[in-house]
């Protein structure tokens, strides 16, 4: 301890100044404390720290944060593990994560507000409001509505490789691709998740309001809710604050720090970054009929429709292991099911390095938000289910073991399927590898560059690079080329192949690839007289 002794003619003045400074610091300190939610301990949540350490260990997770809402109060908010593993920076309830597709309900809420204002009718053809949106055929263009788009029942499959492998910040460019996406089901025939339909909702919102989707989110949701730390893209995330780095897990179970993935063009489908303190406010509005602190955030009528069944996802029959979890439907940006006799509304989110879940029970007035910095992780689901069972006074279920065992079985099955698609080599290719180099395009996806490097053939989309391993004749297998670790033939197989095509003159004029399992192979046409023999810059 240091003691300051003062003497002389200026001592009284200096003491007064120090007292004033101390008082100001105390006020600032009190204000900082006041910004943190004051949470009274809830006995139902006793012992969670130990349980959640087991979760971290089981999934070798870097970290996660969780908030629990009951009625209009936060009863639990805490972080576990690290937001920055290398520097041992801990996760707290203020740590910012990418929330991925948990963003979707924000976008549908903006549509709901436009409907209440009389600016759109969600049961009219969306082309009436957004003429730039054209579908594969005239019948689709003339009949697909916002209700269809919000509930994923347009007849279009995901087409995720279009925006993921061929990423662009131009929403206009992505919107034009929709016209070339052939449906694999009839309109309203079946539920099929499609991120492009949420990107298109964002384009509609911008056209009607004259403001960007991002500005609409900030002005109509973030500011009224006091979500002061949340933002809508990676550049804003990196400006500062308590941000988390994203991680994957390598086959040897070590953590792999991943680059942030900026999806500006697809932002309305999943670009929001937030923390559990802010997300708790958002969840509170949904729990309380669309209101937060007496202010309407979500129009009540729209809120009720959004959490009501609009499309059947699957039959959702009870399973032997979980007899009291059944039915699976979709509303507007929300999945719906029955959880042990309780009506559950939730949505997950996944983007490179991050996984999340927002879940609430409208009849029980409780909600849980879990944000994690692990890629494709089960951690948010496990943590959420552990907490919900306690809140609802349900019988104990070892979710950690059950979900981990299920995940291990699923991964083994996927590995077996991948091995089936790997082709045993039989014959050499019809051309020297340099003849395959070039620029190949499909209007529903984008352009892929094929090039030669060190006597090997590689492919590069907007953000990904692959090694092409010749399998049989002109069929090549795709292997990820990691920017840091290169190609790993044991674990890097991407799960799809491509076959080069020849024209009548014997020249390579395109390649066919089935980039997504539910879709037929698509033909990428080679640009005439353009070869890409060397790696693209």
TrEMBL record:
InterPro entries: AmpC-like, Beta-lactam-related, Beta-lactam/transpept-like, Peptidase_S12_Pab87-rel_C. It comes from the Bacteria. Signal peptide: none annotated. Residues 427-514 form the Peptidase S12 Pab87-related C-terminal domain. Residues 49-380 form the Beta-lactamase-related domain. Pfam families: Beta-lactamase, DUF3471. This is CubicO group peptidase (Beta-lactamase class C family).
